Amino acid sequence: MSAHHESARPAPDKVLTEIADYVLGADPGGELAYQTAHYCLLDTLGCGLEALEYPACTKLLGPIVPGTWVPHGARVPGTQFQLDPVQAAFNIGAMIRWLDFNDTWLAAEWGHPSDNLGGILATADWLSRQAIAHGRAPLTMREVLTAMIRAHEIQGVIALENSFNRVGLDHVVLVKVASTAVVGRLLGLTRDEIINAVSLAWVDGQSLRTYRHAPNTGSRKSWAAGDATSRAVRLALMARTGEMGYPTVLSAKTWGFCDVLFKGQPLKFQRGYGSYVMENVLFKISYPAEFHAQTAVEAAMQLHRQLAELGVGAEAIERITVRTHEACVRIIDKHGPLANPADRDHCIQYMMAVPLLFGRLTAADYEDKVAADPRIDALRERIHCLEDPQFTRDYLDPDKRSIANAVSVVLKDGRELPEVVVEYPIGHKRRRAEGIPLLVEKFRRNLARRFPEKQQRAIAELSLDPARLERTAVNEYLDLFVI
Q1: I need a surface site. Which of 123, 384, 447, 469 has the fewest CB within 10 A?
Q2: Is 416 helix (H, G, I), strand (E, B) or coil?
Q3: Cβ atoms of 263 and 375 closer than 8 Å
């Protein structure tokens, strides 16, 4: 008895064709989308500059072969590296994500859509320098912003209804897919070539979430997005050579992505592609904390001030109860030893204990020197999370997208402090007017970490003039970031 296999080449999966048609269509979104993309660009670059202060990040950067310098290659901001676009995308992507301080999207799957900037910026800069070398016009920063809006939208819309983490896959699969599509557009691929490229992204073996969860939490979570966006550039370049694609990579029985890795379920979609994700993206402005804990950290800062007003410190706390949403409990509710900074910045108890004790939470607070303070672990053991079903519903509500945490404190002398409830973090769309001045301040602070005053001024003057920035050639803008 033999099985019959149909060998005729099928039409591409609808998921592939819709992505291709979207990236080849008219510029997405209006003023709000481009305004938000502008601030997203500044914040993302700033996050990368801050990461350059950490040797654990910088040891991974540069060319694969030390000393390599690529003529007309892509610049890596804050460094002297000029690399091929694939390696430059890894460098930029790793910098952006290292400190868990760039933007966030929360839905059935969460992630950080600005991770795609690694591939976008590296490709756009390389193409611009190549164009100038051959007497053609370079790309402008407007085209970078457009690519960012599209990449945000592809990653975020797929994430709305499809939980990759529940089947053990990391969200960077969506970075790879989104980056491949928009880089394909920048490279001038045809519709068929973009479909081929995106199919190659889906057919790859995908990253497991092993490195994000105890007992294996580790630093790969800080460079996984750089790996994904650089792989996207590589695949788009391969498609440009005419490399074939795999039309039913998602839907093929037995061998397709959905049967192999998604428990046989097709991908589901709540809405078509537009500019919804960029317009509603969440900025991490005040604290480098996993986003499900952002409002808990805000509450902890308020409670630190209340304790000071009472004349006591965190050592007076007997018990802390956190009402939260389901995703927070599942992802960052951790007890027991924390092995490294990557473990600590995904533990809500740690992220609350530091501000309760010291009235701050910075990237340096996840390092071993601070974590060695025994008061942190002692306080962690007194912090307990429980799911509030209403918070979970509000988290999933497309009209709210809240990330609520409510914190109650009981002191050792029996006194109870009023519960502190924070529904929306300062980087949320509902608090955008409050947050943007702080985002600009964060950008200026990150420029000051890396550049002398005159260079800071030149970068800031151009960056904070949206109309002028959009007209600027990509290579000219990135040349400002060379040290």
Answers
A1: 384
A2: strand
A3: no
Phi first, then psi: what are they for 324, rounded to 5°?
Answer: -145, -170
Alpha helices in 172-256 (DSSP H): 172-186, 191-203, 220-240
Each residue's pLDDT expressed in tens, for the chain with a length of 483 residues: 445 556 678 999 999 999 999 999 999 989 999 999 999 999 999 999 999 999 999 999 999 999 999 999 999 999 999 999 999 999 999 999 999 999 999 889 989 999 999 999 999 999 999 999 999 999 999 999 999 999 999 999 999 999 999 999 999 999 999 999 999 999 999 999 999 999 999 999 999 999 998 889 999 999 999 999 999 999 999 999 999 999 999 999 999 999 999 999 999 999 999 999 999 999 999 899 898 999 999 999 999 999 999 999 999 999 999 999 999 999 899 999 999 999 999 999 999 999 999 999 999 999 999 999 999 999 999 999 999 999 999 998 888 889 999 999 999 999 999 999 999 999 898 999 899 999 999 999 999 999 999 999 999 999 999 999 999 999 999 999 999
Return d(Cα 397, Cα 85) in angstroms, integer.
39
Q: What is the DSSP letter of 410?
A: E
With beta carbons less than 8 A apart as the criterion, state whether 281 and 341 touch: no
- Residues 437 and 439: their CA atoms lie apart, in Å, by 5
Rounded (10°) CA dihedral 76, 81, 82, 84: -80
Q: How far apart are CA 120 and CA 287, in angstroms?
A: 26
- Provide the 3-class DSSP secondary structure of residue 385: strand
Per the structure block, which two tokens stand in for 162? 């499809």
Pair of tokens at residue 357: 């004790």
Asked if 68 and 93 count as a contact pair (C-beta separation under 8 A), the reply is no
Strand 383-387 relative to strand 317-324, pairing: parallel
Q: Which residues pair with 182 in a beta bridge?
A: none
If we measure between CA atoms, which residue out of 370, 282, 228, 358 comes closest to residue 101? 282
Give the pairing of strands 74-75 and 416-422. unpaired
Classify residue 72 as left (phi > 0), alpha (psi -120 to 50) or beta.
left
pTM: 0.91
**Closest residue by Cα to residue 278 from 167, 182, 394:** 182
Decide: 40 and 278 in contact? Cβ < 8 Å: yes
CA dihedral 97, 99, 101, 102 (to 10 degrees): -10
